[in-house]
Write a structure and sequence with these properties.
- There is one protein chain.
- The protein has 492 residues and is mostly helical.
- It has 21 helices and no strands.
- It is globular, with a radius of gyration of 22 Å.
- It starts with 8 loop residues before the first helix and ends with a helix.
- The relative contact order is 0.19.
- The mean pLDDT is 93.
């Protein structure tokens, strides 16, 4: 069966950028920069982008293009012993898909609330008590099903399903060509308004005033590399799947650079938006920016709704902001589901329509666990282990395999042969030494801290079951599928 292809180069880049740009760009990057030296953080961040982000993206684009398959196919073609890593990456994508859609659901709900600011004055109580109805729950005691969360999640699944079901050109590419320009226009329109609000400049000063003493702190460099790996959608099957649909003549190096630069540029742009709003909020309330700044879901669903209450024309700026969140989330969710769908199509020889139906059907059913009273707690715990243990370990193993166990120079030659500009020895230096060393430090630190201190005050049995247990189960499934594949491959 002939493999589908992207219709245009712009379509592919917009889809790749859409995958990389997610909710994390909007709420994680600004806070990371603010916590780690403000303007000075941009130095390690740009260094990480050049030494880890761009080389890793070139690597994944080249592997997907050269091997013409999803993540398990790519690693199996490198060596049948490595196919398990491909399945481990697909499972990471599958787990992220089922909880990430809950946050998109919240954003869809808040889009509807934003027209009238129906979250009221106490945005914290509204989010946790009224909307999520978070009671005395835990990740293992989820409470009852909440239709106000489930219905917007179903809407998100329907949009993702329509895009993946319709194929590369007709679905994903078309959706990306609408979503990405829309996202950039909305964010720029918001910036154009909030920059002129009183206090906005003070907010930006907080974000960009450099604290160069932080550059001597290894944790800041670790945070910069961590942010690059989190934000680019590398290491969990997406970019391998997307690049497998590239036409034979594709400028891989250029495409990779553009994808990384647009993604990182958007992160900085989002930082300008968020801190302008926080600066205005601080000025209105007579507080310091440090007292109103926050990270994660609290920033998006507690702090910013409170800021929107204070904004002029909130009934326009509020919906614009939450529509941007929804679009950023959906473009990433589509790419995550495509990574899983692509792997099933390759392995089981299913049609796209059948594979998309199976993946979205099962994904929808499992994701309903997050549409409960304790859904936020379950999401928080699973997300921590997937991002800080499974994903970083997957990236590290991929770099070790490609850097040391296969011929990396062949991969570089393949990319250079097709590209307008060539990458030199720095590419191999980054893939073999710089990136793995930084990843090993970050991953080891995370593992040791989690083993010593646990996470988030959750009970030990919850960490064992939904944290370590989940990651271990994914690893076992990957190895079992790999082992089962070998006799079939040998008998063929």
């Amino acid at each position: 069966m002939k493999r589908e292809q992207w219709g245009t180069r712009a379509g592919f880049i917009l889809a790749a950028v859409g995958s990389a740009i997610g909710l994390g760009n909007i709420w994680r990057f600004p806070y990371m920069a603010y916590e780690n030296g403000g303007g000075a953080f941009l130095i390690p961040y740009l260094f990480a982008m050049i030494t880890a982000g761009i080389p890793f993206m070139i690597l994944e684009f080249t592997l997907g293009h050269k091997m013409r398959g999803s993540s398990p196919v790519v690693f199996s073609k490198l060596n049948t012993k490595f196919e398990w890593l491909g399945w481990f990456q697909v499972l990471i994508a599958a787990v992220i898909a089922v909880y990430y859609v809950a946050v998109i659901g919240w954003a869809i709900s808040y889009l509807s609330f934003s027209f009238t600011q129906s979250w009221g004055a106490d945005t914290k109580a509204f989010f946790f008590s009224e909307y999520l109805q978070l009671g005395d729950n835990s990740p293992t005691n989820l409470g009852s099903w909440q239709s106000q969360i489930a219905i917007p999640m179903a809407i998100a699944w329907a949009i993702t399903f329509a895009a993946v079901f319709s194929g590369i050109k007709g679905g994903i590419e078309r959706a990306s060509k609408i979503m990405m320009p829309l996202l950039f226009i909305m964010v720029l329109a918001l910036i154009g308004r909030v920059l002129f609000l009183p206090g906005a400049v003070e907010g930006l000063n907080y974000l960009f005033t450099p604290d160069f003493s932080k550059l001597a702190d290894p944790k800041v460099w670790s945070a910069a590399y961590g942010q690059i790996f989190f934000t680019l959608s590398v290491g969990f099957a997406i970019m391998l799947a997307y690049s497998s649909y590239l036409p034979e003549k594709s400028d891989i190096n250029n495409n990779a650079c553009m994808t990384v630069l647009i993604n990182c540029g958007f992160s900085m742009t989002a930082g300008v938006l968020i801190f302008s709003i926080l600066g205005y909020m601080a000025a209105e309330q007579g507080k310091a920016v440090t007292d109103v700044a926050g990270a994660g879901v609290g920033l998006a669903f507690v702090t910013l709704p409170a800021a929107i209450n204070l904004l002029p024309i909130p009934y326009i700026l509020g919906p614009l902001f939450f529509l941007a969140l929804v679009v950023a989330g959906l473009s990433s969710h589509i790419s995550i589901i495509e990574a899983v769908t692509s792997a099933l199509m390759d392995k089981l020889k299913l049609t796209r329509k059948a594979a998309a139906s199976v993946v979205c059907g099962i994904g929808f059913a499992v994701s309903m666990a997050f549409a409960t009273n304790g859904g936020l707690l379950l999401l928080d715990l699973v997300d921590y282990f997937i991002n800080n243990v499974a994903l970083l370990a997957s990236c590290l193993i991929e770099l070790v395999i490609v850097g040391w166990l296969v011929k990396l120079s062949d991969i570089r030659e393949h990319a250079n042969k097709l590209s307008e500009f060539s990458v030199g020895n720095w590419f191999e230096l980054c893939i073999r030494f710089l990136s793995p060393v930084m990843l090993a430090v970050i991953t080891t630190t995370n593992l040791l801290n989690t083993l010593a201190d646990g996470y988030g005050g959750y009970a030990q049995e919850e960490l064992m079951l939904l944290g370590w247990g989940l990651v271990g189960a994914m690893l076992v499934v990957g190895i079992v599928v790999n082992t089962a594949s070998k006799p079939a491959a040998e008998g063929a």
